[in-house]
Write a structure and sequence with these properties.
The complex is a heterodimer of chains A (about 375) and B (about 290).
Chain A lengths: L1 H20 L4 E7 L6 H17 L3 E2 L2 E9 L4 H14 L4 E3 L4 H14 L2 E4 L16 E3 L5 H13 L4 E7 L2 H16 L3 E8 L7 H10 L3 E5 L2 H13 L8 E4 L7 H4 L7 E4 L8 H14 L5 H19 L7 H9 L2 E4 L2 E5 L5 E11 L2 E12 L10
Parallel strand pairs in A: 1-3, 1-4, 4-5, 5-6, 7-8, 7-9, 9-10, 10-11
Antiparallel strand pairs in A: 2-3, 11-14, 12-13, 13-14, 14-15
Chain B lengths: L2 H31 L7 H23 L3 H22 L9 H23 L15 E3 L5 E3 H23 L1 H11 L1 H6 L4 H27 L5 H16 L4 H21 L4 H15 L10
Antiparallel strand pairs in B: 1-2
Helix pairs in contact in B: 1-5, 1-8, 1-9, 1-10, 2-3, 2-4, 2-8, 2-9, 3-8, 5-6, 9-10, 9-11, 10-11
The chains are: A alpha/beta (about 375), B mainly alpha (about 290).
Chain lengths: ~375, ~290
């Protein structure tokens, strides 16, 4: 009898630890644009994420990582279906995505309803860390208005009086322009005209003619990916870069300089990353990334990398149990992240509070020439999570 | 808007309209004259752009030639492809109803997109403008106009003239027009209508692909680029009058103006202006501006 009792006790002690040893792999749903104008951005994010996981030996928080990928095509109308498939059919534990703000808004809605942890590695729609914010939704990138606010401060300081803006007519572009307008007009300037065209259109000729006719002191423009390449080239082809400086958030020249070539030279942009930060963490990151992918990393790769870091911080605090949402969120919010972009902390709306650098295009680099705005937080209007 | 800006915006409108005509012309041939609703027409436009992107470095290496040689080789490839596609798929569609045509050509869109994805991937690409066309003309004190856009306009005008000539002045054009009205009659007159249609079809596809190649340097090369163009070109064919090349040309120019000036003057509603315009035209003239054959 005694023998049985002891062995039962022994068994009881062994079983839980045996279970702990063999936690199933963590399923990560990558919902990113793998095609279309943002394909290069989606791939860079994916690469950055994988790099961090590889550096941790393929495991974070003691759990192996497996991936389920879906191409969101930057198509808001397919977003709800896509993320529902990941959550309900593929049973992923966490979703990483995406680039397009409209798609991300639909994703955030589903994440909020189902309680699935969502880490957004790019899309900056202000509303997600504003009125739509939730405990289980995090952003490793920025809010759309942040780079705009930073650039507006710079433009006002440079003494520009009137500005025109050009962007795609969608959330990311309009919010970026709003950020610029806010800080530029606070600094004494005036935005005289806001030009838009439908996403992802690239027929800029008519709008450039308008710019030439109005002759503003400066043009602020938000485009990204293939659209940014085309816009900067067309701007130069119309001869405007010689008379009216073009500025923007860093997306205008990040990951696109190779293709933009001569036409981007000298442009000023503001972003939370640059090509020559020359801090130890970034140098190591750049070297590892270049070795792994035979490519130079860009801001998107950094945001993917930091999305994985956030996941790791949260999982470590919950010992691999992602369902403990309060502990997971608390850990992420109380950590100072050591990112290739420099360190940042999370705001109460789960959005990074970070420095925005002023960068200038020199050759094929976005050279950091100063700080555009220090420790900039997004206003997170309308967000109340405890 | 002052006068010089107005003139430059008009130039932009004409150039954009002519480019649309290039795509709509092929669609008019296939849909208007031969009666096949070809949803895959936009995919051939996209294919042309990708051909320009993929061929130009190869052509430069092999012949040291530039964009013109690329265009010629691209057109030859497109004609061969159009001929094969007609023989394998489209030739079975002439007698079918529109629903079946829509289903098959929609399937073709998916197949072409998938093949593109496998062969060249899903990235966005640009095609370089050759050295001799990359200059700009000074139009006002701050605005310059890229020569390549003038080149596009010139090419489109030449093509439009050639199509008018072939369709309305030659025996071939007469047979095509007659065939669209009464297939049996033209066959009984000893014309090999099957072969004739195959040629027209191949030409329609080649024109779409050519439009894609010409547009590649100014519109970028990206997946799904054909769909947006397809919709606007169906609008053009409908406004212009189904089957009328002249109608397609005039409708293209009108759309070019509406789109360009809409973007600038009424940016809030620019996206729907084209469709509002179509609705108005169709209320006024339900069969379009020009009847086929006129």
């Amino acid at each position: 009898m005694k023998g049985i009792k002891y062995s039962l006790v022994a068994l009881a002690m062994v079983i839980p630890s045996a279970f702990a040893q063999s936690q199933p792999p963590l399923k990560v749903g990558m919902m990113l644009p793998y095609s279309g104008t943002f394909a290069a951005l989606g791939n860079a994010i994916d690469n950055g994420f994988q790099l961090y996981v590889k550096e941790q030996g393929g495991k974070i928080g003691g759990r192996e990582i497996t991936y389920v990928r879906v191409d969101d095509e930057s198509e808001p109308s397919k977003a709800t279906d896509n993320i529902n498939k990941l959550i309900k059919r593929d049973n992923v534990d966490v979703v990483i995505g995406t680039v397009h703000s409209g798609v991300a808004m639909a994703m955030a809605k589903v994440a909020k309803e189902t309680g699935t942890t969502l880490i957004i590695p790019n899309a900056g729609a202000d509303i997600i860390t504003g009125p739509m914010c939730a405990k289980n939704i995090f952003r490793s990138s920025f809010s759309n208005s942040q780079p705009g606010v930073a650039m507006g401060e710079v433009a006002a300081k440079k003494g520009y009086k009137n500005a025109m803006t050009i962007t795609w007519k969608y959330a990311a572009g309009e919010e970026s322009v709003k950020g610029f307008k806010e800080s530029f007009e606070k600094g004494g300037g005036k935005v005289t005209k806001e030009l838009t065209l439908p996403f992802p259109g690239v027929e800029f000729q008519a709008l450039l003619t308008e710019v030439a006719a109005a002759k503003p002191d400066v043009v602020y423009s938000f485009f990204a990916g293939g659209g940014a390449v085309k816009f900067v080239k067309d701007y130069a082809a119309a001869g405007l870069n010689k008379t009216i400086p073009l500025v923007g958030p860093g997306f205008l020249t990040d990951g696109t300089l190779e293709a933009q070539g001569e036409s981007a030279q000298g442009m000023l942009t503001a972003l939370h990353y640059g090509d020559n930060l020359n801090i130890k963490r970034d140098n190591e990151f750049r070297l590892a990334y270049a070795k792994q992918y035979k490519l130079q990393p860009d801001v998107y790769a950094v945001q993917g990398y930091d999305a994985a870091q956030m996941l790791a911080v949260g999982l470590k605090a919950t010992k691999g149990d992602i369902s403990k949402k309060d502990d997971f969120a608390k850990a992420i919010r109380s950590t100072k992240f050591d990112s290739p972009r420099g360190s940042f902390t999370m705001s109460n709306a789960n959005n990074p509070i970070q420095d925005f650098y002023l960068r200038q295009v020199v050759g094929k680099e976005n050279k950091v020439i100063g700080i555009a705005s220090k420790s900039l937080a997004d206003p997170a209007r309308g967000c109340n999570i405890q | 808007m002052d006068f010089s800006t107005f003139l430059i915006q008009s130039l932009n409108s004409v150039q954009y309209g002519l480019l649309l005509f290039l795509v709509a012309a092929g669609l008019t041939l296939i849909f208007g004259i031969m009666g096949v609703i070809n949803l895959a027409h936009g995919s051939f436009y996209m294919m042309g752009s990708y051909l320009a992107f993929a061929l130009s470095p190869m052509v430069a290496e092999a012949f040291g030639g530039g964009l013109i040689s690329t265009f010629i080789i691209g057109i030859v490839i497109a004609i061969i492809l159009g001929y094969i596609l007609e023989w394998m798929f489209y030739s079975y569609l002439y007698e079918r109803d529109h629903l079946q045509q829509v289903l098959m050509t929609y399937g073709l869109i998916l197949v072409i997109e998938e093949i593109r994805s496998i062969l060249v991937g899903d990235d966005v690409h640009g095609v370089a403008i050759p050295e001799w066309l990359s200059a700009s003309i000074q139009l006002s004190e701050v605005m310059t106009y890229p020569v390549y856009r003038l080149f596009i306009s010139g090419v489109c005008i030449l093509l439009a003239l050639a199509m008018f000539f072939v369709l309305s002045k030659t025996k071939l054009g007469m047979m095509i027009r007659a065939g669209s009205v009464n297939r049996e009659m033209i066959q009984s007159l000893g014309v090999n209508i099957k072969f004739l249609y195959r040629i027209v079809f191949a030409a329609g596809i080649a024109i779409a692909a050519f439009a894609g190649m010409v547009a590649a340097p100014v519109s970028s090369v990206y997946p799904g680029m054909g769909q947006g163009v397809l919709i606007i070109c169906f609008v053009i064919v409908v406004i212009g009058g189904i089957g009328s090349i002249k109608g397609a040309l005039i409708a293209s120019l009108l759309i070019g103006f509406i789109d360009t000036f809409g973007k600038v003057l009424l940016p809030e509603v620019a996206g729907v202006l084209v469709y509002v315009f179509m609705a108005m035209i169709l209320l006024w003239k339900p069969s379009g501006l020009f009847k086929a054959g006129s």
